Amino acid sequence: MMAKPFKRLLLTGAAGGLGKVLRDRIKPWADVVVLSDIADLGEAREGEEIVVCDLGDKAAVMKMMEGVEAVLHFGGISTENTFENILHANILGTANIYEAAHKLGVKRIVFASSNHTVGFYRNTDYIDATAPTRPDSFYGVSKCFGEQLASYYWDRTGLETVSLRIGSSFPEPKDRRMMVTWLSYDDLVEALRQSLFATRVGFTILFGMSNNDVAWWDNSKAAHLGYKPKDSSSQFDASFPDSGQYPDQNASVTYHGGAFALAEVRYKD
Amino acid sequence: MMAKPFKRLLLTGAAGGLGKVLRDRIKPWADVVVLSDIADLGEAREGEEIVVCDLGDKAAVMKMMEGVEAVLHFGGISTENTFENILHANILGTANIYEAAHKLGVKRIVFASSNHTVGFYRNTDYIDATAPTRPDSFYGVSKCFGEQLASYYWDRTGLETVSLRIGSSFPEPKDRRMMVTWLSYDDLVEALRQSLFATRVGFTILFGMSNNDVAWWDNSKAAHLGYKPKDSSSQFDASFPDSGQYPDQNASVTYHGGAFALAEVRYKD
Amino acid sequence: MMAKPFKRLLLTGAAGGLGKVLRDRIKPWADVVVLSDIADLGEAREGEEIVVCDLGDKAAVMKMMEGVEAVLHFGGISTENTFENILHANILGTANIYEAAHKLGVKRIVFASSNHTVGFYRNTDYIDATAPTRPDSFYGVSKCFGEQLASYYWDRTGLETVSLRIGSSFPEPKDRRMMVTWLSYDDLVEALRQSLFATRVGFTILFGMSNNDVAWWDNSKAAHLGYKPKDSSSQFDASFPDSGQYPDQNASVTYHGGAFALAEVRYKD
Amino acid sequence: MMAKPFKRLLLTGAAGGLGKVLRDRIKPWADVVVLSDIADLGEAREGEEIVVCDLGDKAAVMKMMEGVEAVLHFGGISTENTFENILHANILGTANIYEAAHKLGVKRIVFASSNHTVGFYRNTDYIDATAPTRPDSFYGVSKCFGEQLASYYWDRTGLETVSLRIGSSFPEPKDRRMMVTWLSYDDLVEALRQSLFATRVGFTILFGMSNNDVAWWDNSKAAHLGYKPKDSSSQFDASFPDSGQYPDQNASVTYHGGAFALAEVRYKD
Amino acid sequence: MMAKPFKRLLLTGAAGGLGKVLRDRIKPWADVVVLSDIADLGEAREGEEIVVCDLGDKAAVMKMMEGVEAVLHFGGISTENTFENILHANILGTANIYEAAHKLGVKRIVFASSNHTVGFYRNTDYIDATAPTRPDSFYGVSKCFGEQLASYYWDRTGLETVSLRIGSSFPEPKDRRMMVTWLSYDDLVEALRQSLFATRVGFTILFGMSNNDVAWWDNSKAAHLGYKPKDSSSQFDASFPDSGQYPDQNASVTYHGGAFALAEVRYKD
Amino acid sequence: MMAKPFKRLLLTGAAGGLGKVLRDRIKPWADVVVLSDIADLGEAREGEEIVVCDLGDKAAVMKMMEGVEAVLHFGGISTENTFENILHANILGTANIYEAAHKLGVKRIVFASSNHTVGFYRNTDYIDATAPTRPDSFYGVSKCFGEQLASYYWDRTGLETVSLRIGSSFPEPKDRRMMVTWLSYDDLVEALRQSLFATRVGFTILFGMSNNDVAWWDNSKAAHLGYKPKDSSSQFDASFPDSGQYPDQNASVTYHGGAFALAEVRYKD
C-alpha cells in the first residue's frame, strides 16, 4: 500500500459548512488529519485528531500546529460581521496561523479566500488574478489581508500559499449569480488537491469555480496548478429559465460579490 | 405551460438571408414576433406580425416598435454598396431604431454587426473586442457606426446592446477563410439566445463564430454571456484538403474581412 | 525665399470659431489657402480663395477640392444637434470630403475630431488612442464615424489622416474641466503643423491638449508626430482656487466630455 | 481675504516625523487644523486644536472627528514592529478613522501609505498603481490593509481616498536607494494639496516621490491629480559618487522596500 | 488518387530522435521526402531520397535543396554542447538553410525550435510567444538565433516560418516537468501538418506541447494555425503520484527549461 | 583626489567611429583604459593600454581581459556585411568576450547593440524593450544574438549587461530619420556612465537616443538607470524644413532601421 502524502495535515474551520464537506474527503492525503474549530467537532474518527481552538489565541495555534506539514486554512468567520469580530477571527487568526507555520517549518498553506475580495467588479468585468482587489465587505477586506500576508511570507520566508478565492460552493446554485460562481464539492476537492500537490506554487491565486458556461474569472495566472474543473452549473439551467425580465429586480447579479456588494455597512456600535 | 419570455419581439431584416433562417427559430422566445423588412415577407403565420417598413422612415419605425420589448436588428444592407445607400439603410435606419427603442422603453437590442468592422486585420492577428476597429468597406464603417451609437445609448440611457459581429453564417463554409469565420445556424441562434437572456449585458461585443479549429477572435470580453458554440467547421475539412499552394492565389484569406478587404472603392457617381 | 510647402491647402469650416483663428496662421504653409464654409467668409485676402459650400453637396465638394494637396477638415457642426443635422453636415459631409480626396489624389487630411469621441470616460480614467471610443452625443458619434472612415481610406487607399481629438480650444479655460482639456491656439497650430508635415502618419489619433498639469489622455501612440505642447493651463490656476467643495456641484468635471455627457438626448421630432 | 478651503481639517500622527513637518504647512488649508497623536503635541497654536488620542479607541476617534471635513491620516506606527502593535495602531486605528469618517460624512481622506506595500519588487521592476502589492513587512501589510479598506469605503459609500505611497521623505537622501525614493518636504506638501483639492479622486493611489533621475514607480494612473514634483534628488549626486562596486555590499538597493525587504521576521513572543 | 501536397519536402536531422519518428509519418505530404543528416540514414525507401550532408557546408546545402518546396528543419545539435559545436551546426547550419531557401524560392520552413529559448522562466510564469526570450544554454541561444533569422527572412523576403518550440517529445514523460512539457508524437505530427498547410503564417511561434493539465505556454498568438492537440500527459498521472515532498529535491521543475537551466556553463577549453 | 571607479576598463572596437569618440571621454572612469581593436590604434597615451586583437581569437580575448573589471563592448562589424564576416566578428567575437568575462569574474558589460535589432518596425510603431525583436539585416540578427547571450549569462552566472541599442550617433543628423534616432556624443557618454555605475542592472535594454521631439522608443523599462538625455535633434530643425512631399521619395524613414530595412539580402557567394 502506498504511503499517504502527508503525515499530519491541518484543516481549520472543520465544523463549518465546507469543513464538514471536506472532513472525509481529505483523509487520503494524510495519515492524520488534524481538525480544528472553535465549535464542537464531535468525536475524532480514525485518522483524525480534534483540536478545539480559538485561532486568535496564538499559543493555542502554535501548539496545535506542531508536526503539521501543510494546512487547509478554512477557519474564521465566513460571512459579513462586525469589524471587531472579523478583526479577531480572520485577521489575528490568520496572522497566528502564518507565524506558527513559519516558525514550525510548514511548507504550504491553502488559504480559503473568497470572491468577496473582488466583489465590487461588475458582471461584465472579466478579470484575472492580477486585477486590483475590490473587496465588498469587512469580510472581503479580511480575505485581502490574508492574501497580502501570504504574499509577504512567501517573499520573506519561502512559505508557499495557494489562495483559493471560493465562489459559491454548495450542492447546487441558489440563484442566477451562483450559476456563474458555483463550485461543486468535487471541483473544490480537486482544487485543493492540485493546490496541495503541485510541485511549486509560490504565492498563487486560484479562482474557485466549476466549468460553468458564464465566467467572470480567468485562471490563466494559475495555469501551473493544472486545475481542470469537471462539473458545470449548466446542469441546473432548467432551474433558471430564460426571461425577458432584466437585472434590476435581482441586482445581486450585477456585482461579482452579489448581495454582499449591495449590503449596508455594518459595524458594532 | 411556461409563459414565453417576451410578449413582442422585433426582428428587422426578416426577409434577408439570416432573417429567413431565424423566422421560425425565434418563435419560442415571444408570444408575437414582429417581422420587418422593406421586401415582401409573405403571409403572417401564427404568432407573427408583419410590417413592411423602410427603416429610414422614422415615423414608420416608431409605429412599428410600439409595445416591442426587445429587438433583433438584422435590417439594412448586408454587403458593400454605394455610400448613399449605406447611409440611408444602415446609418439612418439604425439611428431610427435606437431612438425609437429609447423613446419607447425597449430594454435590449441585439445588433447584427459584422466581421467587416475589423476586416483589415491580417489573418495572423488574434484580436478581442477592445481592438480598435479597422473597417474594410462602407458597409463595415456603417457597422462601426451602429456600435458607436449603441455604446452611446448605453452610456446615456441604459438601453443595452449586444453587438454580434457575425462571421460567415451559411449552411457550410464556401472557402478556406470561412473555415475560420463560419457560424453555424444553430450557433447563431444560441448566440442570440444568450444575448437576449443574459442577465445584464451593458454594451457587449460578441464575435459570431462557431468552435472552429482556427480562430482570429477572442471572446473573453464577452465571457459574461456564456456563449459556447457547439459546431465546428472542422466537419468540412475534407472540402479543403492540405495543399502546398500558399496564400497568394487566394488572397481572401489574408484579411479578416476576406474579399471585402481586397475590393475596389465603390461610390455612386 | 523658400517655397511654401503646399500650393493649395484647404481649410473647411473656416468661418467657425477655430476656423477664424486658423485663417491667418496657416498662410505660411501654402501659396493658396482655400477657405470653405457654409457661412459667409467675407472678402478673400491675398493668398486666399473662398468657397461657400455645403459639404453635403458632393459635386460642390469635388469641385472645391481640385488641385488641393492637403485638407484641414474643420467643417460641419461642432456641438450637439439633432441627428438629422449631424447626419447631413458631419457624416455625409465628411464622406464627401474623403471620397473627393481619394479621387483627386489628396495625400493627407487632418480631421478635427473631438474629445467627445471618448466623452463617457470618467475623470479618473487615463486613456490612450487605442481605448475603445465612448461617445457622449450624436456629435461625438459622428466624430467616431469620421475616424472610422479615415481608418478605412488609409487601409484601402493609402490616404493618410491625423485625427486631432480637440479638447477645449479657447483663449483660456472657462471651468475646472477645461483646466484639463485646454488647448491653446498656439499649441493647436503646432499640432496641425506636426500633423501636416510629419513624414508618414498612416491613420494617427492625436489628443489635442496643451501641457496641462492634469491629463486624461496619453499621446504616446502618436509619438511619431513629435507634438510637444508649449503652453499649460497652470497659468490660470488662480482662476480656480483650491476648494473643499467636491465634484457634485459641478458634475461636468466627472466625465471627459463634461456637460455633453450630462446632457439630455436630443432628436428632431 | 479669501476663505480657507476647509473649516476643520484633521491631521493624525501630528507628533511624528512628517507630522511635525506638516503642522505649519497645512495651516492655509483650514480655519482649524485638528492635530492628533498618542504622543504629546505641546501647546495648541492659533488655528490649531490638539487631541491626544489612541486611534484604537473607537469612541475617542468618533469624538475627535466631529465637524471634520477632510483627514490627513498619518497616524499609527511608521516602521516595522510586532504584529500585535501593528494590529492595534495601524489596522484597528485605520478602521476606526474610516468608520467615523463614513458615519460623520467626511468626504475625503488622504492616507499616508508606503512604498513598503510594494517593497518586494526588485529595483529593475518599474510598476504602476495596478501592480499587485508585495508588502515587505507587517508594516507594509498593514498599509495594504488600509488601502483595501479605503477601496471598500469608496465603492460602498462614496468616501474618497488618495493613498499616498510615501517613498523616503527626509531633508535629503541617506543612501543610494533614497536617491530613487526621495520625496522632498515641498513635494510632499504639494502631493497632499493636489490630493485634497482635486475635483474627484475616487480611490486613487499616488506614489510619493520627487522628480528623481531614477524612478521605480509610474504615476500615470494618478494623472488626474496633476501632481508635478518640483525637486529632484539629483542635487545630491555628489554625495554618492560613481563606483564600480556593485550591489552586493549594499543590498538595500535591490528591493523597492530597501532594508525592510531584508529584515528578519519579527513577532512578539 | 489525390496528388500529394508537395513534390519535394526536405527533412533535416532525419537520423535524430525525432527525425526517425517523422520519417514515415510525413510521407503522405510529398511525392519525395528528402532526408538529410550528417549521420547515416540507411537505405532510401520508396518515396525517399537521402543526402548525407554537413549543414555547415553551404554549397552542399544549396545542392541538397534544389527543387525542394518546403523544409522541416530538425537538423543540428539538439542538446547542450560546446559553443564552437553549436556555432557550426546550429548557427551556421541554419543560416545556410535559410539562405538556400531564399535563393531557391522555397516558400516555407518549419523550424524545430525549443522550450530552451525560454528556459529561464519559472514554473509559475505563464507566457505567450511575445514574451522576451530567456535562453538557458548555448543550445537555447542558438534556437533564439534561428528564430531571429527566420523573422528577418520573413520581413525581408517573404519566406515564411513556423518556429515550433518543442517541449519534450518522447513516448511518455520521464519526470514531473515533462508532465507539463510533453508533446506526443501524434501531436507533433499534427503541429507540423498545421504549420506546413496553414494558408498564411508569416513568422509564427508555436509552443509544441500536448493538451496537458498543467500549461506554462499560451498558444493564442498562433491561433491562426488551428493546432488542437489530442493527447494529454494526464494519462500518465499514476506514474507521478501526489506527494508532500516539494520542489527542492527535484529542482528541474522550477524552470521551464528544467535541468538545462540548472546546468553548469560549458565551453570548449 | 578621489580614486577612479575602476582599475581596468576595456573598450573594444576602440578604432571605430564611436570608439574614437569615447577614447578620451571614458578616461575619468578607470586608472587604465584597455583599448582593443583589430585595426591600428596608434600610440598608447597616458592611462591607456592598447591591444590589437581579433575578437574571434578566444585565447587572445582571454589574455586581453585579465584584470579587467568592466567592458564597453563596441567591437565587431558595425554595418551590414556577409554572413560569414558577421558570424566571425560579431557572433563568435561576442561569445568570446562573454565567456572570458564570466571566467575572469568581470561583473558588468555594456554591449553596443543597435536599433537594427528592431529595424523592421514601422515609424508609427512606438515600442519598448519588451517588444519582440525584428532585425533588418545579418548585422541586426547578430546584435539580437548578443542580447540573447547576455540574457543567458545574466540568468546563468549573474554577469550583468546593459544592452545599449544605439540609434544614430553622429555629430548631427544626416536625414529626417536621424532626427528621430539621433544620439549626441554627450548623451552617448552619459548613457554609458549610467549603464556602468547604476547599482544593479541585471540584463537591461536601453534605447540610445537623445531627447528628440519624435520618439519611436520608450525607455520606461530602463527607468532604473536614470538615463536623462540632455540634447535634442530639434536644434537641427532648420536643416529639414517642412514639406508637403511625403514619405515615398525617402522611404528610409518608413522603418526604424531606415535604409537597412530596404537593403538587398547580401551573402558571400
Characterize the structure shown:
6 copies of one chain form a homohexamer. Chain A is globular and about 55 Å long. The model of chain A has no long low-confidence stretch (mean pLDDT 94). In chain A, the strands form 2 sheets. A 7-stranded parallel β-sheet of chain A has the order 3-2-1-4-5-7-8, with helices on both faces. Chain A has a two-stranded parallel ribbon with strand order 6-9. The first copy, chain A, has 7 helices and 9 strands; from the N terminus they run E-H-E-E-H-E-H-E-E-H-E-H-H-E-E-H. In chain A, helix 3 runs parallel beside helix 4. Chain A is 30% helix and 18% strand. Chains in contact: A-B, A-D, A-E, B-C, B-E, C-D, C-F, D-F, E-F. The interface between A and D is medium-sized, with 31 and 31 residues.
Instruction: Report the mean per-residue pLDDT of chain A as an integer.
Output: 94
Percent helix range of chain A:
25-40%
Strand content of chain A: 15-25%
Helix/sheet category of chain A: alpha/beta
Biggest interface reads: A-D, 31 and 31 residues
Strands side by side in the biggest sheet of chain A:
3-2-1-4-5-7-8
Q: How would you characterize the largest beta sheet of chain A?
A: 7 strands, parallel
- Tally of helical runs of chain A: 7
User: Overall 3D geometry of chain A?
Assistant: globular
Taken in chain order, the helices and strands of chain A follow as EHEEHEHEEHEHHEEH
Distance between the termini of chain A: 58 Å
Oligomer: homohexamer
Q: What's the gyration radius of chain A in Å?
A: 18 Å
Number of strands of chain A: 9
Low-confidence stretches of chain A: none
InterPro entries (chains A, B, C, D, E, F): Epimerase_deHydtase, NAD(P)-bd_dom_sf
Keywords (chains A, B, C, D, E, F): Carbohydrate metabolism, NADP
Pfam family, one (chains A, B, C, D, E, F): Epimerase
Domain NAD-dependent epimerase/dehydratase (chains A, B, C, D, E, F): 10-170
